[in-house]
Amino acid sequence: MEGNGQKIDIKKFLPHRPPMLLVSNMPYIDNTSVITEFIITPQCIFLENDFFTEGGLIENAAQTCSAIVGQSFYDDEDLEGNSNNLIGYISAIKKVEIFALPKVNETLVTKAKLLSRYDLNGVSICTMSSNTFRNDDLIVDCTLNCLIQEV
């Protein structure tokens, strides 16, 4: 599955559902990188005084990152998310720098890259870097380890 120029419905590929789904659109994905968008709505559970919290920013990065490796568990032509069922975990936060907290109704753009990956028996352990932007301003820089598993 590569979505270059078309918006893939990421809800079909992540196990998260509102209010825990923190990705609205995925305008780009390839084998080593992904770009997602998230519109912070007033209903978001990661709000404190109309600001999106640090925990929400990290979860947004993790959901974005998981799409890179998660896509390899699906058939190439599967744009509906029917060919597999996955679960993912943040196994370690190696680095996180948060420069600003965005507000309700702002849109985040998160760009992630795969740094390393190890696969064994339906499980992938990977390290990914992620940068989150509000407008053109970098607001989060992080590196995460994730574990993605077929269920």
CATH domain fold name:
Thiol Ester Dehydrase, Chain A
Overall pLDDT score: 86
Query: How far is it from the N-terminal to the C-terminal residue, by CA?
Result: 20 Å
Uncertain residue segments: none
> Per DSSP, what share of the residues sits in E-state strands of 2 or more residues?
over 45%
List strands and helices in order, with pairings:
Layout: E1 3-8, E2 25-29, E3 33-39, E4 47-48, E5 51-52, H1 54-70, E6 86-98, E7 107-120, E8 123-134, E9 137-150
Antiparallel strand pairs: 1-2, 2-3, 3-7, 4-5, 6-9, 7-8, 8-9
Structure summary:
This protein has 151 residues and is mainly beta.
Overview of the molecule:
- The protein is mostly beta strands and 151 residues long.
- The protein is built from 1 helix and 9 strands, in the order βββββαββββ.
- The strands form 2 sheets. Strands 1-2-3-7-8-9-6 form a 7-stranded antiparallel β-sheet, with helices on one face. The chain has a two-stranded antiparallel sheet with strand order 4-5.
- It is globular.
- The mean pLDDT is 86.
Give descriptors for this structure.
151 residues, mainly beta, Thiol Ester Dehydrase, Chain A, 7-stranded antiparallel sheet, two-stranded antiparallel ribbon, 1 helix, 11% helix
